[in-house]
Design a protein that fits this description.
The protein is built from 11 helices and 8 strands. The protein is of the alpha/beta class. Helix 5 crosses helix 6 (208-215). The chain has helices at residues 71-74, 100-113, 128-138, 163-179, 182-198, 208-215, 218-229, 231-244, 264-279, 294-297, 299-307; strands at residues 34-38, 41-49, 53-57, 79-83, 120-125, 143-149, 252-257, 283-287. It has an 8-stranded mixed sheet with strand order 1-2-4-3-5-6-7-8, with helices on both faces. The N and C termini lie far apart (42 Å). A hairpin with a 2-residue loop joins strand 1 (34-38) and strand 2.
Amino acid sequence: MISANGSNGVNGGNGVNGTVRPPAGPGAERPPGRMLRVGGVPLHVVREGSGPVCVLSAGLGMGWFDWEPVVPLLAPHRTVVRFDRPGLGFSAPPLEPPTAAGEADRIAGVLDALGLDGPATVVGHSLAGFHAEAFARLHPQRTAGVVLVDGSVEEDPRPAPARELRTTAAQARGRVLAAAGLPRALGPALRRLTVRASSVSRQDPAPADLVRRTYGTGRVARALLMENARYRDVAAELAALRESRPMPPVPVSVLAASPGTGSWLERRWLERQRALAERLDGRFEAVAPAGHLLMYDRPQAVAAAVLATGPAGR
């Protein structure tokens, strides 16, 4: 695995000082991409295709490979950038807990590290929808468009109490789980169960080897616990940004997963997603049939929204 001090060929500094591929274990195929130091953390970054830039950021505890069904539809028309947030996928552990501004700056840092200084369409799934919107508000000149893929919604966002205590508790739980070997024993199985529960196709596009090498580590388990512990704080921070930082005048698409059950919960979710689109003066689309992992179930809908956004889609 990748160490926090930037071993395996990643040197110090804030720029791009290492371009080695992520390490592979014995007999394991190397994943695509390279390691770039962004904000002091070695991140696993994958760049494909050509044309206007789009950045894909996955939801809580997820990785670069969760966009795999969408990338072939985008790469002929877009420069597609994927990255693992600190601790997730093949990226090194975080130096500090996540914040909305920090994740927005991280997206900007990834683009800087790749030498992509023009405007980009930012695509955020679930929790990363907070990060994508924060990027647009904090980096308006670098935003060509925003696509929220079944993004997280909090109608009354307030920070949870005892933030530092929650942070410490999440770190402690992560250490205990890792010491007990539970990520290796249970992590891949829990990942498979989550996919089956969150997708109408119930199929995980990620190769079993990659799932084992990522979700089977204490590093990923700790990062997932930390993202979950700070979820409400990030939501409240974004709410504050909405009061002080206007959205740039760019296209916004809000895609909402609709399993097609007609249940009260589904209707309520679609109402909340529609309200988010109205708040952002964006386009709303209910995508059916699809679960929360919309990029698995309906990758064509995600790709179409991205291609309709940005320089070539205006």
